[in-house]
Specification:
With 390 residues, the protein is α/β, with parallel strands linked by helices. Helix 7 packs antiparallel against helix 9 and helix 16 crosses helix 17. It is globular. The strands form three sheets. Strands 5-2-1-6-7-8 form a six-stranded parallel sheet, with helices on both faces.
């Protein structure tokens, strides 16, 4: 039986990746740096995923797994050597650390079976980082011979995540997941995954990922950040507010114009197919907390909102809906979201203009920076910017 190694046993790792491979009959191994995540899995020896499909709700109890914490003894080594596919549902900032740990594993794989080929699939919304990830993994391998083997025998591929997965905490063993659209995976792959539902190899993934992050995640983040300022806790509640919906729709409309100008090779029908996600049956409302999490990353220079702003500048399109959405994001705060706490502390210490410039990656005197600051002050004048207890 085939084995998959899942690096990161949080919500997405368990609720999507583990559940999906378990359905296909694969052996599953989880590896996580957080001992509490692994302790909870091993204490229960199972976890439950409530899967919301378009026509049904399925309670899936997953028991066929092994779970290891990263340790100096490399307890996961035997399972690594049995795996041909490695799935990495990680935040962008965690890939380098994962590479440092797995370097010895790839070295050992080269020693015991140099003919074996492997595929490592990255599940992160950040685009254009595969070359960096490849370099981190390659450079972590001790010997030159194993690094040469890695170059020709390990395929590191990107993906487009189109499935929401949530739970009370990242170590929870009760998880909700929406199964209505496939994970799109960059080609070519070195290993066969055709027996696994919801995994779909696609060409031109880097372009599609830019488009997906812009057209889906941008309006989604807008709804979360503006909805948060207006006191909502869920995306559906925020979307029902006419002002929030109007801003999200305006962000979507200008994003579509910008994307179709930048990528003339994609048709409107293909774009609709990419961004359209069928509605799941009785799906639990998506939380603003999940969608808004880590505003520093989501407001960055090349991400879901600022990436479209740059296209608007390039093609002389109205970017004001986007800068208002960014201003809403700059005001986001949740006490258990370290990035948002740091953002608000930075705002208090350095001021609005300096913080805005640093977050969005432009000079303080750039027209976009100034416009975002003006939009923030307008929100403050409407008494929508809360007092932050940082």
């Amino acid at each position: 039986m085939k084995r998959v190694l899942i690096i990161g046993a949080g919500r997405l790792g368990k609720g999507f990746v583990g559940e999906t491979f378990d359905n296909a009959g694969w052996n599953i191994t989880f590896l996580d740096k957080d001992p509490r995540v692994i302790d909870e899995l091993n204490r229960h020896n199972k976890y439950t995923v409530q899967v919301f499909r378009t026509d049904d709700i399925i309670m899936h109890e997953v028991t066929n797994f092994r779970a290891f914490a990263t340790d100096d003894n490399y307890s996961v080594m035997n399972d690594f050597l049995e795996s041909s596919v490695i799935m990495c549902p990680l935040y962008p900032e965690d890939f380098e650390e994962s590479a440092r740990y797995l370097g010895k594993c790839f070295e050992q794989q080269f020693k015991v079976d140099p003919d074996k080929k492997m595929t490592l699939i990255c599940l992160t919304n950040k685009n254009h980082i595969i070359k960096d990830i490849e370099a981190w993994y390659r450079n972590a391998i001790p010997s030159a011979q194993a690094r040469d083997w890695f170059d020709s025998h390990v395929a590191i591929r990107d993906s487009i995540v189109r499935r929401s997965t949530d739970a009370e905490t990242h170590y929870a063993t009760q998880i909700d997941s929406t199964a209505v659209a496939s994970l799109l995976i960059q080609t070519p792959l070195y290993n066969d995954i055709s027996d696994v539902e919801w995994l779909e190899p696609r060409d031109h993934l880097e372009m599609l990922k830019d488009i997906k992050v812009f057209t889906i995640n941008g309006p989604h983040a807008t709804t979360a950040y503006y909805g948060h300022l207006k006191g909502y806790n869920t995306i559906p509640d925020a979307s029902a507010d006419p002002e929030v919906a109007a801003l999200a729709n305006a962000v979507h409309d200008v994003t579509i114009k910008a994307v179709m100008t930048e990528y003339p090779q994609i048709t409107r029908e293909a774009l609709t197919d990419l961004e359209y996600l069928p509605k799941a049956k009785n799906e639990l409302p998506d939380s603003i907390h999940r969608v808004a999490y880590d505003p520093v990353r989501k407001l960055a220079f090349k991400d879901r909102l600022m990436g479209v702003v740059q296209l608007c500048l390039k093609y002389n399109l109205d970017y004001s809906p986007l800068t208002k959405a960014i201003a809403c994001g700059l005001a986001y705060y949740a006490e258990d979201d370290r990035a948002s706490v740091n953002l608000q502390q930075q705002m208090q210490k350095k001021g609005l203009l300096t913080t805005t410039a640093q977050i969005i990656g432009l000079p303080k005197d750039h027209p976009i920076t100034l416009n975002v600051a003006q939009q923030y002050l307008a929100l403050d004048a409407e008494n929508l910017i809360p007092a932050i207890p940082c």
